[in-house]
Structures are given as structure tokens and as C-alpha cells.
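During the reporting period the student researcher (J.K.) took over the structure-prediction task from the postdoctoral fellow and processed the backlog of single-chain submissions. One of the processed entries is reproduced below for the supervisory committee.
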Amino acid sequence: PPELRERDAEQLPACGSDLPGVRAAAEKAIVHGKEYLCVLKYSSSFASEQLHSVTTSLTKVLQSMRRLSLDLAKPGCRLKEDQIRKKIQRWLLNPFLEDLIRWQLHSEAGHWRLQFDFDNGAFLKLLANRLGRTLLLTNRMDWSAEQVVAGYSDQQQIEQVFRGLKDGDWLGWGPMYHWTDSKIRVHAFYCMLGISMLKYIHRQAQPAWPGLSMENLLDELRQIQQFILLYPPQGEKGPHRAAVVLSKQTIPQQQLARVLGLDQLRITPKMGNTTSNA
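J.K. obtained the following C-alpha cells:
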């Protein structure tokens, strides 16, 4: 419904602490002849990501249109009308840009002239009614808006897992050097077991760093390293000496190490005595 879709974000009820920066409201509506529960979700982080993408694309397109306008004003420019329009339409393919940029192409003294402007009113409307919003439909009529949003977030996490398997950011599915069905099933089991362990570690790390993404978690854990420094023996018959040193850790890394119990995994080297043959 338009009245739900365009509702002011500040009027939407805030979700719980498990969904920070998220607001949602729900109402029943008839869609394609069936009754659904329509949920409007507003995410401040999603809105900021969209705003960054729009402003970056907007800056590039306005600069390109300015250069095109200057090129058209040069003597001897041979660009035809269809070429100019196709070029501009290709630039405006990014989301929302066609609504934000007004442009006009006209002929003057046998030469094409391009005029363009930024629609500030459309930009304000975009901020108020579009960015950060996701409209969800469900047949779970007894669910609350927050339950629907939480279920949608869980679905995104599942999709993220499969993207991690496909792209190899977490545990890559390939390359897989197996050809028989039984070995492929074992390979799949190992991958899903590794994903389950990663998800468990990610959940355990949330008290130390709320909202920490899987990618950031892996990046921080890679920087926590242990080094074993080997020293020569004192004297000819003395034992080899070793010292265990941890890499310098930031405060978030120290909190992650404490919550995950990484100190219990520290390796203590055991150096035996060495003997020399006369």
C-alpha cells in the first residue's frame, strides 16, 4: 500500500536490540487477489549504503555529462542525436539516477546542445521515501513485523553462507579434486562442517563486538598470531631455548581472544636436550 510504503521512517516502531538500526511496521493488504501481511522494513545502515552508492554514481555521471556538453560545443563535433541519447541513457542506468538528473538535448545553429540539472526535490523525496526501505510480503498472518524482519535477515545469512562457499571467502567449495559420488558427499560434509564452526565462532564473538560481520571476524583473527623464537643453547651441551611471543593486538582483538578463549590454544614448545658426539 502506498500509505505504508511512504510512511515516515521516524514513525515506524524500532525493532529490538537484535536488529540495531532497523524499524518496521506491518499491515494486511490484498495483493494479486490474495491477502498478505505487508511489512515495511527501514534499515539505517542500508540507507547509508544506498546513499553512498547514489552520490558516487551521481558525481561520475554529472562529470561525464559536463564533458559531453563541452565536447558538443566544440567546432567540428560530429556526434549524432541517437549517439548522444544512447550515451546519456547508458549513464543513467544506475538506480535512481534517471529521477535525479533532468536533461534536454536541442539543436542550435546546426549543432547539438546539452542542458542538464540536478533535481533537488526528487533527491529529497528519494531520501524520505525510498532509501533504506524494503517491502516484505508473507502469508504468516500471525507474525509481528519484527518476526518477519528477523526471518528475512536469517534468509540473508543463509544466502551469505552459500556466497562464501561459491566465492571462497570463507571455505571455498572448489577446487574439488574428487569425481566419485561418495567422495563428493564427504567433501560437501567437510565444507558444511567448517561453515557450522565458523558460524558458531561468529555467534560467540558477538558479545565482544556486536554486529561484527563474518568477513571482519576472519580478518581480525588472521592478525592474531603466535611466534616461537628459537635461541641457540648456552654452552655446547645446553638445551635449545625457545620463547613464545604473541603478535601485538588491538583492543578489539584482545576482546575477541578473551571471549573465544584463544589463550587456551597457546602452544608451549618443549625443547629437548641436545647431545654432541665426540
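The committee noted the following: Strands lie at 22-31, 34-43, 101-108, 111-118, 133-138, 226-231, 241-246.
J.K. will present the remaining backlog at the next meeting.
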